[in-house]
Sequence to fold (368 residues):
Amino acid sequence: MTAQIPERLRYEDNDHAMCTNPLSDYFVMGGESPNFEVSCTALWRGYVGSWEIVADRLYLIGLNGRLEGGGRVSLETIFPGFYDRVFAHWYSGTIRLPQGRQIQYVHMGYGSTYEQDLFLTIERGVVTQQTIKQNGQADSEAPDGYGVSAMTIFRDKSKD
Amino acid sequence: MSYGHFYLSLGLVISVWMFFENKWHQKENDEALKKILRSKVVQERRIHEVLMSEVVAPLLFFAVGSFVWPGLLYLKFKEHGGIFRRGKTGWPDESVFELKRENLLEKLSVQEIEEREVVRDPLGAVPVLPFGHLNHAWKNFLDSYQADCELWSFSVEWSPWGGPELRKGYVQVCPKGIDAYFLTVCRDIEKKPIPKKLKRKWWGKLAD
Fold:
């Protein structure tokens, strides 16, 4: 399995790579899931969500991806009537935001290690705790910020 | 025919049979794996790789197997419990989530649940309904609710393949037993440290 492209989170005026998929929980809990087209091995879930924390609440504010058989995915594809913002009340868990330079690259999931992790504990969509974990010091030449080193891109079926 | 010729001939027959029997099952597993990874990801092999795996390796196996076939039979017996049997290979079965009576917390009516589960948001980013964006899923859950059943809240720690989870929600308890459930919390929790005694047992089993 290839390292996965992260979700995006805007938190305290900064943009972060988010190595957690809160929308997956929505589908597990019975929310209707469209058939996302898988276009490359670095994005098995088929979409990238953009998230934001406002007043300690987690919101989904955008969705990028394609549906099998064509068509782009938007928030309204999954949440009809909510085109710009969705409160993620279904999500309880810990969000991981890796920060700093890369210590170790792992070509699987969100397995790579970075200098520190910012963890946000969420209870039913509301931030209840923030913790920082120091993972060590990276080489000075190590890449800064989350990255995926290689992937296989599938042929675009819609062009057949 | 001397005993030596008989031994080698029998060894050759057994080696050929074991090779193709193994190849057949390996192909089944490969196909299953390709389906999971989507076939396009699995790259085509180069000609020298094909020659090595399809010609050189089998010939070597037959040559060596003709001499050491009693050992091969022993290994096959040990692995699969019989010469003509084959233990299940491939992906292990995923354990199925099940609720037990001890996981139940409180008996509630539909009205009580819906009153406590209405979701509100100051930015209006959720429908003001029980379970908010999951209201449709809740209604689907109630569609299967029968008059002789009860609704209970539950909380349980469960350990699927990916790691332990805390699951909370509501479940239908019917005369025939625990039935459909609706999840409200599904979160990863930290693995409990394994006691030293248990660790020793595991190592013992692995070493066997």
Remarks:
- Chain A is about 5% helix and 40% strand.
- Chain A has one domain: 7-145.
- The mean pLDDT of chain A is 89.
